[in-house]
Amino acid sequence: MHTQEKNLGAKVSDAVAATVGSWPFIIIQSSLLFLWICANILGWVKAWDPYPFILLNLALSFQAAYTAPIIMMSQNRESQLDRAKAEKDYDVNLKAELEIELLHEKMDMMREQEIKRLTVLVEELSEAVLKLKKIE
What we know:
The structure is a single chain. This protein is mainly α. Helices cover 85% and strands 0% of the residues.
């Protein structure tokens, strides 16, 4: 299959999708959210984002607003690659099917020739046996 070189956007979207869709990302993000909430509730530092955590909501909204389209771009590109691969697989399978049909035709033809040859041999053998019986 012809491989296309990825442009910068494709590389970035694949990297973001791979990162966001990983356990380390989930664990790190969950830890940061936990620390953010604890720091603001328990008062370890002066609460810069008191409950209901408007700043945290804004940050997560920004993350979602940019992450979702980037992941969709990566998925669309992967979908195009999968479609191209499926088309190539179809072409290969079609060609293989035609080759198999040709082989079947050749085998049938060879079988018919073999049957004709064996029929002639059986007839010759039968004639020879009849001649031998007449001689005896």
